[in-house]
Every structure is written in structure tokens, then in C-alpha cells.
Amino acid sequence: MDTTRATGDITRLLRPDLLAMEGYEPIEPIDVLAEALGIPPERVVKLDGNENPYGPSPKALAALADARSYHIYPDPLQRKVRRALAAYVGAEEDLIVAGAGSDELIDLVLRATLSPGDGVVNCVPTFGMYSFSTSVCGGRVFDVPRREDFTLDLPGIEEAVGQGAKVIFIASPNNPTGNAVSLREVEALLELGLLVVVDEAYVEFGGESLVSRVPERERLAVLRTFSKWAGLAGLRAGYGVFPPALASLLLRIKSPYNLNVAAQVAVLASLEDLGVLRERIACLVAERERLFEGLGRIPFLRPYPSQGNFLLCRVEDLEARWVRDRLAERGIFVRYFDTPLLRGHLRISVGLPEHTDALLRALNDLIATDSHR
Ligand SMILES: Cc1ncc(COP(=O)(O)O)c(C=O)c1O
Fold first, then answer.
1. How confident is the model at residue 369 (pLDDT cuts 50, 70, 90)?
2. Cα–Cα–Cα angle for 205, 338, 121, nearest 5°?
3. Which atom of ligand 1 is nearest to the CA of 49?
4. Residue 88: pLDDT over 80
5. Which residues lie with the beta carbon below 6 Å from any ligand 1 atom?
6. pTM (2 decimals)?
7. Residue 126 has pLDDT above 70, yes or no
8. Gap from CA of 128 to ligand 1 centroid (Å)
9. Does the pLDDT of residue 2 top 60, yes or no?
10. pLDDT tens-digit map of 271-320
11. CA separation, residue 152 to residues 24, 184, 227, 260, 366 (Å)
12. Candidate of 25, 97, 102 to mutate for ligand 1, largest count of ligand atoms within 8 Å of Cβ
């Protein structure tokens, strides 16, 4: 007898650990934010997703308009893209695998490594997808809080390894704290026998890449993305440089057409438009410093230095969530994380100069109003 039909209860067929899990809290797109506020999308100042306000490069936009192969499945082995990426990062193409954003590669690495119950070290506060994907893959998350200056707690990590953790993700520069990991720290992690995945989503804005170290180390992998520096977040294009055995396993277990035609076209064209993209990176880095100074002059904000395209700010005397809500009412969106370590903070992405001006104006207006809570 078909017992499912008999009871009609689908939940007993679903994984109990996933049913109990909280979902990832994603950010909303501009049109949804604009509609909720009843303002035109052009008036939204979106500083909550670490996206690139300049958008795709001119060559990427032209190539997307000209491409004629959207009705054909993309190359499952991503040959042209991996060859171009190999030249861009200076690594062998056999070590490179691309995916639908680095998000997909985080998930794939975990699928490739975790058996049920295996552990992953999560150096909080950090990017939420590491713990999210670990849980989805049936792994255990070992949260090891960073030290007060946001550097890694190496003894704490070693303890987690003793309890069964086999993979660690280190974002460098780290989202949301903005600091980069040192080569010395990575060497110390490699000594522990873990697979060390350094996530360089923001490395084009600061910090040093470890890609050149991957071939020398057996257990080091580096993730990169086109979402931030190249303005392709909506197309979902990321890649990683992996030890050979892991790269070939990832190519075998990924879904065959994971990097879609539009993403492949845009990646290739972006790599031919590096001059423009690098100028934009320089503008964003300069704007980051102007934003840092401006936020530092707001009495209730303490920004931390950052090597990414965002700034984490401690909020003093006011509730961070309240500040987020008041800014949102004015069409300015910044990120608030409702987690114990980040509750008193806001993360603000670097936008265009006029976005900085609008944000600072709104924050100064908050000081002028007396209804502070
Ligand atoms: C540290 C870090 N890694 C990866 C990602 C995801 O990048 P992608 O858009 O390539 O999936 C983000 C996005 O915010 C991030 O902050």
C-alpha cells in the first residue's frame, strides 16, 4: 500500500534537520524595495548587498546583446571561460572550476567533502552561506568567534578540528568585518590538516590573493567571483582554484550546465574590459575612504577599516535596527544582521558618490531629529 497517500503527510518524507533549519536571509531586489516604499526604482539607494553600482562593463553589455546562442546549452566543461580565467589569475586551467556564483562553489565543495555529521569551522561573524550550506549538506557547524580585532582564534579552531571539523572557510577580506587573513594564519590552518577554503570575493578591492599558493599546497582552495568587482551579481558567475583532485571531482559532481550561456558570455567579455573595470574598482576604493571619513563624523557610528567594498559600523547610543529602519523609510537600504555578534552594527556597501552624499545627509538628519528611539 502507498502509505504516503494513506496519511497524506508529506512532512514525514522531508529531512527533519532541514525542516528545523532557519533559511538564509537574503536581500531584496530594487524593484521589490521600490514597490514596498511606493517610490520609483531610480530613487532607491541600495547599499545592502555589496553589489557594484557601476554595473557590468561596456564590453560585457555589448557581448550579451550580440550573443546568438542562448537557445543552446552552455559548454559543461566551461572550456573558454576556464582558459580565460587561467590567464587572468595565473593558474593552470585544470585547477579551475566555475559556477553559478561562488555560492554554488561553496555548496559544491561541501557536497564533495562532507559525509553526514562531518564538521565545518565557521569563523563568525562572517558570510552566512558557509553555515547555511553546511547545514543543507547535513554537516555540523562549529562556530569559532573571531577575536575582538576580528582576527582568527587559532586555538579555538584547533579545538574544533579535534572535535571532527574537516573544512574551514575564511573570507578574505571578510564579510562583514572587512579585514583580510594573513598568509601566516593560513599556513597555521593548513598545519591542522583541514581543507582551507579562502574566499576572495572582495580581493580586487584589497588584500592579497593566495591563488598562486594553491599549486604548492595540497589542501588550499581559493574562491573568487564576478559579482563584486565586475558588476555581474545578477548573472551569477563565480569560480575557484582548487587542488587537482578536488577540481576534477567538482567538475564531475556539478550539474552539467551550471554556468549559463549569458554568464559565460559576460565573464569572457569582462576579462577583455579590465581597463574599465579596474578604473571603477579604483573609484570604489576612493569612495570607500570618503565614506569611512564621513561615517566617522556621525556621532553614533564607529566604522571599522575595510579592504572590501563595504564598511561595518558599530552603532552607539541608538539601536542599529532603528537606524536601518529610518534610512529605509528614506529609500536608503543598509544591512542589519539580527545575530548576537552583529546586532549593534550596520554594514554599508560603497556606492556612487551621490549615494554617499544621500546617506550622510540622512544620517545627519537623524541627529537633528529628537525622536531617537
Ligand atoms: C564572502 C562572500 N563570498 C561569496 C559571496 C557570494 O558571491 P556570489 O555572488 O559569487 O555567489 C559573497 C556575497 O556577498 C560574499 O560576501
1. confident
2. 65
3. 14
4. yes
5. 50, 101-103, 127, 171, 175, 199, 201, 225, 227, 233, 238
6. 0.95
7. yes
8. 9
9. no
10. 999 999 999 999 999 999 999 999 999 999 999 999 999 999 999 999 99
11. 24, 11, 26, 36, 35
12. 102
Q: Quote the cell numbers at residue 297.
A: 563624523
String of DSSP letters for 259-277:
S-HHHHHHHHHHHT-HHHH
Q: How far is the CA of 189 from the centre of ligand 1 (A)?
A: 22
Give the residue, by CA position, lying nearest to ligand 1 atom 7. Answer: 102
User: Average of pLDDT values for 33-56?
Assistant: 94
Nearest CA to ligand 1 atom 2: 201
What are the grid coordinates assigned to 184, written together?
601566516
Contacts of 330 (CB under 8 A, 6+ apart): 362
What is the tens place of the pLDDT at every residue in 155-165? Answer: 999 999 999 99
CA-to-CA distance for 89 and 93, rounded, in angstroms?
A: 10
pLDDT single digits (tens) 222-277: 999 999 999 999 999 999 999 999 999 999 999 999 999 999 999 999 999 999 99
Residue 103 CA, ligand 1 centroid: distance in Å: 6
Q: Whose CA is nearest to atom 3 of ligand 1?
A: 201
Distance 201 CA to ligand 1 centre (A): 6
Question: DSSP letters of 308-368?
Answer: SSEEEEEE-SS-HHHHHHHHHHTTEEEB---STTTTTEEEEE---HHHHHHHHHHHHHHHH
The radius of gyration of the chain's CA atoms, rounded to the nearest angstrom, is 21
